[in-house]
Amino acid sequence: MTIIFHRSSREFHLFNDHISYLIKVLENDQLGQLYFGARVDDADDHSYLVENTYRPVTAYVSKDDYSFSLANVRQEYPAYGTSDFRLPALELAQEDGSTVTNFTYKDYRIIKGKPKLPGLPATYVEDDRDAETLVITLTDEKLAIDLELSYTIFANLAVIARNARFINHGTTSPQLTRALSLNLDLPDADYDWLQFSGAWGRERQVKATHLRQGEQSVSSTRGASGHMENPFVILKRPHTDDFQGEALAVSLVYSGNFLALAEVDPYQVTRLQIGINPFHFSWQLAPGESFQTPEALLAYSATGLNVLSQSFHRLYSKHLVRGEWRDRPRPVLVNNWEATYFNFTEEKLLAIADRAKEIGAELFVLDDGWFGKRTFETAGLGDWWPNPAQLPHGIAGLSQQIHARGLKFGLWFEPEMANLDSDLYRNHPDFLLKTPGRRMSQGRRQYVLDFARPEVVDYIHDLMAKVLREGQVDYVKWDMNRNITECYSAAFPPAQQGEIFHRYILGVYSLYERLIQEFPHILFESCASGGGRFDAGMLYYAPQAWTSDDSDAAMRLLIQTGTSYGYPLSSMGAHVSAVPNEQVHRVTPLNTRGNVAFFGDLGYELDLTSLSKEELAQIKEQISFYKRYREVFQHGTFYRVQNPFAGDPNWVGWLVVSPDQRTALYADFKFLNDMNAPYRRQVLPGLAPDLTYRVEEVGKGTVGDFSGRDLAHIGLVTSDAASGVEEATTDFASRLYLLEGSRA
Ligand code: GLA
Predict the structure, then answer these.
(1) Is 529 in the pocket of ligand 1 (CB under 6 A)?
(2) Among 8, 468, 609, 641, which has the minimal tally of Cβ within 10 Å of its Cβ?
(3) pLDDT digits over 430-443, tens only?
(4) What is the 3-state secondary structure (H, E, C) of 162-207?
(5) Mean pLDDT in the chain?
(6) Which of 91, 108, 111, 89 minimizes the C-alpha distance to 100?
(7) Cis omega (within 30 of 0) on the bond before 580?
């Protein structure tokens, strides 16, 4: 990995074995974009890539000729108002009412490693040899504002991390009304745009559309990244699939309002952008102050979408998730929510915990309903102390009993919320976000705390820290069950109300940071009515996230496939729940429910005390199998082998391969049963060609010995060839294969 500055051409080249990124200081001293993609040769001068030309109806920079227009050249961090009419990366509303800026090249520095972003989540390296960072400083001389654009290239990943920072050295107080994290102008528009959209209970479904002239975007205005859209998009060539072809992707390391956008101009230049949503955003840049954008990640693959996803998986697993739990196997948990909802006693919880221990689970999680007067959703949020009516021995007593059974203990919180029926609200009615003189909209009968205010965050911190200290808590599920309305903070002046959404999420991050520093042994799992805040920002604090409130195995096949495009399996909380399923009332076989949940952080979310002996025995078997291979499931290399969004919608094939390629697990899932079906043969990528794999169908027996080369090209027969017809399976049937490789 290297960063080179070619002084005579004023070009920067960042490259490693996989990718190159080329930037040029243009003739007007603004920054131009030359190239991003597969690694290219270094050269002194790539200025032939500045495709400047005369075009009618264009405005030009110089008064004397038609040779240079910002409308024609690809830029790094464009502004509106001079000669470029496309959407800008920044907008700065100045005291005189103008918005025109001119950020020109000042200097650069190259830093070993990767600096932290104060108060914000960001990727990191532990060893400075693993990354190098280029910081280019631009300045607007009239305003005396510097703009620092940072680019980090990693030693062994096809990823560039970017961010922007504005520093006001001047005497005026302009308002930033657009400050994106990344702008990338691409030389053509022959791309499919992939977004990960949905709603509560059906998050991150893949939607694809070919780019066309004009704008295509996804965004959030909810105060969270949201169930509906995800701050992650892919641009792929039309023929690109999971296994071949070119693609790039951007991801925002941020959990609040975002915008991801592609604008195709009349000359087929694609402007790709991601950052804080400019809608309802402004930031007062007072003299001496600075504004730091969140980090954006840009990845590239020349060989298909699996490789693209794997770059994010590796980056997040090793350079975003932090702390003791980053590399540790994630515990198998039992959660009481779908087992009891609010209706539990200490006795009932302990009965579930007894069963949890018997079946080999490692962590018992007490979900909503243990605190304040929380016997239903109308009361108690904000009162983070145990309810003696439900827990006579408190959290301390319960956690002790759970530990005495040899289980770890986990607890649910929803720190950002309050019910009106709470001591918090009675004592601090001013702690809620609300617009003066306007009604407060409710969601799930709860209201959002003003986390833009440090004293509100302090208040919640002190209550949570007390419970965590006294209660021997090993795991926290941090939930967030409604979006922000009437966003307004009484603590800020009118001119700063556009800052509140961003300040809110900074408050959330600050509370997370304090708690993980104070309780480094706690495993945090984020949650927002399921996957309503499943983003890279959260992974910096909480190594795993509850993927969706929809725990139906069939829906999870889609949700987890969609999620896998951008996020590693180790980040996906995946639970086996009861049938008929609570959300969709579907009945799926227990072995399929297990097989789906294996490809994530396995948990059980059902009343273990009401299961039959046979079911408990089967679950015990599942847990012991998962424990044996969880390193591979959680941290192996993952491939979407059969993708219901891209191929036959009736089939899903997931494969994980250990880093040494000696162990692999392949699961073949079917939605609806078919009749007199074709034979199925599945080619399996990612194996070592020269190893011989003993293939076992889990629960059935040995299938045979095959070389990695044969499995990659001939494939594995997954239908029951001997019976002549597809065997008498049911809807939602699945098969799990274990492949263990050795030298013949
Ligand atoms: C949300 C979560 C669930 C559960 C409930 C508790 O819906 O996503 O898993 O914790 O809240 O109220």
Answers:
(1) yes
(2) 8
(3) 999 999 999 999 99
(4) EEEEEEECCCCCCEEEEEEEEEEEECCCCCEEEEEECCCCCCCEEE
(5) 97
(6) 91
(7) yes
Give bridge partners of residue 523 from the DSSP assignment. Answer: 475
- Whole-model pTM: value is 0.98
Q: Is the pLDDT of residue 407 over 90?
A: yes
DSSP state of 94: -
Which atom of ligand 1 is found nearest the CA of 528? 8
**CATH fold of 2-319:** Beta-galactosidase; Chain A, domain 5 (2.70.98)
Write out the residue limits of the CATH 2.60.40.1180 domain(s) in the chain.
641-742
* Residue 527 in contact with ligand 1 by CB distance below 6 A: yes
Summarize pLDDT for 494-514 with one digit per residue, the tens: 999 999 999 999 999 999 999
Q: Taking CA 231 as the corner, what is the angle to CA 252 and CA 645, rounded to the nearest 5 degrees?
A: 130
Write out the residue limits of the CATH 3.20.20.70 domain(s) in the chain.
333-634
- Tokens (6 digits) for 216: 């295509």
Alpha helix (H) residue ranges in 286-377: 305-319, 337-340, 346-359
Q: Tell me the pLDDT tens digit for each residue of 314-326.
A: 999 999 999 999 9
- Which CATH number does 641-742 carry? 2.60.40.1180
Instruction: Decide which of 3.20.20.70, 3.10.100.10, 3.40.30.10, 3.30.750.24 is the CATH code for 333-634.
Output: 3.20.20.70
Question: Does residue 130's CB lie within 6 angstroms of at least one atom of ligand 1?
Answer: no
Separation between Cα atoms, residue 98 and residue 140, nearest integer Å: 14
